Structure prediction request, 126 residues.
Amino acid sequence: AEIRSLVAYLEQLSGVPGAEKKQLAVKESSYHVGEHIVKSTCHVCHNATGPNPSPQQILEGAIPPLATLTTRVGLPDFVRKVTKGAPIIMGTPPTSYRGRMSVFVYLSQDEAAAAYLYLSRYPPRP
Prediction:
């Protein structure tokens, strides 16, 4: 199905007459979508495993690992942080700051949720 969809797409890009009528959608599970997002976006900055940094370590630049993400934050907060940004607790004494994490405006809320669900079901292991 993916090959047929790709060929039809390439034909449309090439201007082959009638190619627009051959377009096929490929449906992926939300876990597979989440896997692609985690592996192509999240892993750029986050390690898969490791210790959960303290608020002071986060203020000093430590980046939390993906393995403990679902124990640190729930699904609604994760989606908001990824798609719109949200403050986090940093420093000593703990204070709420915007943090350094990029906001991924190109990800939909469903795509961000798929990444969270993937990490929930398949947490990274050392």
